[in-house]
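S.,

Sequence below, as promised.
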Amino acid sequence: MKDIRQRIRIAVIGGSRPGRQAVETALEVGRLIARAGAVVVCGGLGGVMEAACRGAREEGGLAIGILPGASPADANPWVDVAVATGLGYTRNALVVMNADAVIAVDGEYGTLSEIAYGKIHGKTVVGLGTWEVKGVEPAQTPEEAVRMALEGLRR
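The prediction came back faster than expected:
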């Protein structure tokens, strides 16, 4: 296994209260990221974040959660590395800055802020059922989203 500092990191961002379809999508995205040998980075809480972490872990992958609160114990049970920040929504910038590419699944305004940080910092941002804004590359399936995120790193 590569040193973690050399592994690709893909942020999976999205809503904390998603519907069933978004949860299933995020679960599959997490699985595919792990199969590609990459690391899932997320906000570490529930919903899309938890589903992506679970998918990654079920495939033997690694999940990093960058938390808004002051306690690592707040992380969902599928997070391997919990980073407490005490920064609230400001931690969204840290989620994106610790990723090479971003995949947005579902989401509300917190997700929109992460999309903006991704674009500000020149990262590939792929969307699955999320905000349709300039710079977000739409994907139709989890497979397509992960492929697009990985291909965006080669540009």
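The two ends are 25 Å apart (CA to CA).

Coffee later?
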